[in-house]
Write a structure and sequence with these properties.
The complex is a heterodimer of chains A (345) and B (236).
Chain A lengths: L7 H18 L7 H56 L8 E9 L2 E5 L2 E5 L5 E3 L3 E4 L5 E6 L4 E4 L4 E6 L2 E12 L11 E4 L2 E14 L6 E14 L2 E6 L2 E5 L5 E5 L8 H5 L4 E2 L5 H12 L2 E3 L2 H4 L11 E2 L2 H10 L4 E5 L2 E5 L4
Helix pairs in contact in A: 4-6
Chain B lengths: L1 H12 L9 E3 L6 H9 L3 H22 L4 H17 L10 H20 L33 H12 L3 H12 L4 H8 L3 H26 L13 E3 L3
Parallel strand pairs in B: 1-2
Helix pairs in contact in B: 2-3, 3-4, 3-5, 3-6, 4-5, 6-9, 7-9, 8-9
Classes of the chains: A alpha+beta (345), B mainly alpha (236).
Chain lengths: 345, 236
């Protein structure tokens, strides 16, 4: 198999060797195209994220250099401004707001370093270091992080908001939805007794059983990087991973509309329908419920219509129904799909 | 086979430099480093090359080590590729990107079974031959020892994957299913002479593709091929 000109004899020997190799390789099973597509999709998501992060980093460095140059010229002015501003603005140690309460369920206890433990109030602002504890039964809370992401806390849970990108889950469950804006590079890291979970453009939940006997990750959309000690890896949408004691694990599959997401749907933030197009509402419903929206052709042209009025709801399917009603359309839910129905005349 | 290559490298380190057939080669970087730089720079064509050329090859490599467990293979390959892309900056070009990915994949497989506290369901020893060959594919019975080990077979299949489908199809008909040239001609709707000509082109294409793949992996071309001169990498 060299590049040199071959005699008929060596060519025949080459062909024989190649034929032998092929025969001995056995039949070729096809690579499942859907598996390959899934792998490439996940890879592409990581690649886009990494490229964007590199560009952001490079821009920060360039910006930093420009700022350094500008600072060296105007240092005297800056110092003067700083001294003046210090007298007027809040101190450096002032608490930073990292989240706002979107929706509150039952009683939730707030414990921050600046105030004694108290019941959390609707629309409260939470500062870095705040600790939240939800009660049993129907307790829970839906927060809007300063990054714009949604963070939900199930009943019987305890978390510490270290800052807007880092929280510690002691027990119970959290759900994180980074939103659909892929350009938003702010990630969240959830720290648990079993490891750290960092989102890569994601919807995911983490549940810590009492005593930390089991920590369960479920990825609904995008990817989550799991770090345990020095080991890191990525878990993709549709997959779950139960981290068991002594480093053991149990992987499993989880559909985006599986029942295990029900507590998340129940804690959906409120949506004002007025001023949004019907397809915007449907996209939100899909994001909240994990259902795939199926639009018949006859309805596709209609859903760009904007909903009028001041209707607000916290129930995704109700939101979809209300928005579709304005177009005389209906819906049904069938095995992971929200199907828009055009009523017959 | 990669394992053999590593062993060879270790053996070569111990070869006295005075040997006549020793060629001292300056450390060079693999051409894949250029591809990696383009991927890191956000070049779509480079990413497509990566995903179309390397991901299927990695899939076959993983499947050969995981007894063709489809779900596990998909998860392991996905994790490997995603992690590799996240730390692509650490690729230094001392081996091909495929070799690097295979090394990452081996680690993922090892970690997976360590986490489960078990061994692979079927330990994929390099020497282990295929045990399951559907009868319809076998024309003349072959003894198991005549079949390639799973990993070597995976690379032959990867080379076939990389061929245009009309080429890979005729090669499989001829050499794996044992179909005669006349029958291939019938299937192609061509004369036997034209079918032989397609086979000749397909063989040439396979030879080139397989050779390129083996070069990517830094492996000898095929069992029985003549040995390359001993190469000793100088260290700095």
């Amino acid at each position: 198999m060299s590049d040199e000109p071959k005699t008929t004899q060596t060519k025949a020997a080459d062909d024989a060797a190649m034929a032998d190799l092929l025969e001995r390789s056995g039949p070729r099973t096809p690579i499942p195209s859907e598996d390959l597509a899934q792998i490439v999709r996940a890879a592409e998501e990581v690649w886009i994220h990494e490229v964007a992060a590199r560009r952001q980093g490079a821009a920060d460095v360039r910006r930093g250099r420009r700022w350094a140059l500008a600072a060296s010229v105007t240092v005297a002015l800056v110092v003067g401004w700083f001294l003046l501003a210090q007298a007027r603005s809040p101190g450096i140690g002032d608490p930073v707001v990292v989240a706002t309460v979107d929706r509150l369920f039952g009683e939730v206890l707030l414990d921050s370093s600046s105030t004694p433990p108290q019941l959390l109030e609707a629309s409260a602002h939470l500062v870095a270091g705040a600790r939240l504890a939800t009660g049993d039964r129907a307790s829970g809370v839906s927060l809007r992080l300063s990054s714009g992401a949604s963070l939900r806390l199930d009943r019987s849970s305890r978390i510490a908001l270290v800052d807007s990108t880092h929280l510690r889950l002691e027990v119970g469950a959290i759900y994180y939805d980074g939103g659909s804006d892929a350009s938003d590079l702010q990630q969240i890291t959830v720290e648990t007794s079993a490891g750290q979970f960092t989102d890569i453009g994601t919807q995911f939940s983490v549940r810590v059983e009492e005593g930390g006997a089991e920590v369960v990750l479920q990825v609904r959309e995008g990817l989550v990087e799991l770090t345990r000690g020095t080991e890191a890896r990525v878990v993709a949408a549709g997959r779950g991973l139960a981290l068991l004691p002594e480093g053991f694990e149990r992987p499993f599959a989880v559909a985006p509309h599986a029942e295990s997401w029900n507590w998340v749907i129940e804690r959906s933030p409120e949506l004002a329908l007025g001023g949004r197009s019907v397809d915007e509402v449907l996209a939100w419903v899909s994001q909240e419920t994990g259902l795939e929206v199926v639009l018949p052709e006859a309805a596709a042209a209609l859903v760009t219509e904007v909903v009028r009025g001041s209707v607000r709801t916290t129930e995704p399917l109700e939101a979809a129904r209300l928005a579709l009603q304005t177009l005389d359309l209906d819906l049904r839910v069938d095995t992971g799909r929200l199907i828009v129905v055009v009523p017959e005349e | 086979m990669i394992g053999n290559h590593e062993q060879n490298a270790a053996i070569l380190e111990a070869v006295p430099p005075a040997l006549e057939n020793v060629v001292v080669r300056e450390p060079t970087t693999h051409p894949d480093l250029g591809l990696v730089r383009r991927i890191l720079a956000g070049d779509r064509a480079a990413f497509d090359d990566f995903s179309q050329r390397l991901v299927p090859a990695l899939y076959r490599f993983a499947a050969s080590r995981l007894a063709s467990d489809r779900e596990l293979t998909r998860d392991i390959v996905q994790t490997t590729v995603c992690k590799a892309l996240a730390r692509l900056e650490t690729y230094r070009g001392s081996a091909s990107l495929l070799t690097w990915l295979c090394a990452c994949c081996r680690n993922e497989i090892a970690m997976h079974f360590r986490r489960l506290g078990s061994r692979p369901r079927e330990t994929p020893l390099a020497e282990e031959p295929h045990r399951i060959v559907p009868a319809e594919f076998v024309v003349a019975p072959r003894s198991e020892s005549m079949l390639l080990d799973r990993e070597s077979a995976a690379w032959v299949h990867t080379a076939l994957d990389r061929l245009p489908s009309d080429h890979s199809r005729v090669l499989e008909w001829k050499y794996i299913e044992g179909i005669s040239v006349n029958e291939i001609a019938e299937r192609l709707g061509k004369s036997p002479k034209a079918a032989e000509s397609v086979l000749t082109r397909a063989r040439a294409a396979f030879r080139d593709t397989y050779r390129q793949l083996m070069e990517e992996l830094g492996q000898p071309l095929a069992p029985g091929d003549r040995q390359e001169p001993v190469v000793r990498m100088s260290r700095r």
